[in-house]
Amino acid sequence: MRRLFWLAMGITIGALVVRKLSRAAEKMTPAGIGASIAEGLRDLADAIGDFGADVRAAAAAREEELRAGTGLDAPLPERDSTPLQLPGGRRGGAHAADR
Question: Per the confidence metrics, is the pTM higher than 0.85?
Fold first, then answer.
């Protein structure tokens, strides 16, 4: 029984070693190297996309802070329909020079 156990253990360990060596050998072939490079480029593209999204989100948050701080989003005051009275009785306004 002991011999059978050790035989099974040896076969199992041998199979695992052969599988690991086969994977390592496959990675050293041109196709394996190309697949590794392609995977690395995909990871890099994903990281760049995530970085761009983070930058856009931070820029939008900062723009909102700046707009709130400067009052750029405040509603405009209502405009009167009466013309502006200048000193001397003249009327001002957008077309005052045309009169």
Answer: no
